Amino acid sequence: MANVAEFTDDSFQADVLSATEPVLVDFWAPWCGPCRQIAPLIEQLAAENEGSIKIGKLDIDQNPTTAAGFQVASIPTLMLFKDGQVVETFVGIQPKERLQAAIDQAKA
After folding, report:
1. Which of 29, 39, 70, 83 keeps 20 to 30 A from 92, CA to CA?
2. In the chain, what are the domains?
3. Residue 58 contacts residue 8 (beta carbons within 8 Å)
């Protein structure tokens, strides 16, 4: 997970909301099977988009304030942020192409 950041309640403002580049956040939990299933895809997207977007994970059990603030009800939930705003939300496992298209649009 070299290219995948770990976000926390304490770091979310600086790492995500104040970021100058788009940020893809994977809201997950260690006990969530689909979250573990999508993890390699998240790592692949992070490696392929390194330098143009920040990609990271937020453990909802360890960081409930941020998860509740963004009304994360199901996991995995992926939220794409640009200029501190959510521009796209995906719930559940998504095809790589769909996520990459959203990333490309946010980078434009």
Report:
1. 83
2. 4-107 (3.40.30.10)
3. yes
Closest CA to 53 of 16, 90, 78, 91: 16
Segment 28-67, tens digit of pLDDT: 999 999 999 999 999 999 999 999 999 999 999 999 999 9
Active-site annotation holder among 5, 23, 35, 45: 35
Is 35 catalytic? The answer is yes
pLDDT in the model for residue 2: 60
Q: Quote the tokens at residue 21.
A: 């580049």
pLDDT number for residue 108:
86
- The residues, ordered by sequence, that sit 6+ positions from 74 with a Cβ below 8 Å of its Cβ are 91, 92
Contact yes or no for 80/49 (Cβ under 8 A) = no
Question: Known catalytic residue: 32?
Answer: yes
Q: What angle do CA 21, 2, 27 make, to 5 degrees?
A: 65
* DSSP three-state, residue 52: coil
Q: What is the pLDDT of residue 3?
A: 85
